[in-house]
Write a structure and sequence with these properties.
Elements: H1 15-31, H2 39-51, H3 56-67, H4 74-83, H5 88-94, H6 104-117
Helix pairs in contact: 1-2, 1-3, 3-4, 3-6
Length: about 120
Amino acid sequence: MTIFKQVLEEEHLTTPEAKELLADVEAERALDEDREMRYELARAIEHVNRFSTLEAAASRQLVDDLLELEKVDASTACKIADLLPEDRDELRTVFAQERYTLSGDELDEILDIVVKYA
């Protein structure tokens, strides 16, 4: 017998947004003394606590501002919000796997948006 799984819904989250969600899960687990956190959950919480730099609302606003640009999709906007690149070279690494390249003006436009939140 083969079991197939189907993706019903997909949503891109930034690290600060994931931190908020995991904080709720951690608080829920802390209330139940008999329930132990799994290794993967503990590592995920440790990761978001270490690498989350912005507040969740600010990161979502940054993503929304980036989505207004023509060549930025939701996945890339979340990566940019998580990494907060400081120069063109760092930003180019985010777009390295894309089939297109951005001009210097397009990169500067993205960096100008990032600077508002960094």
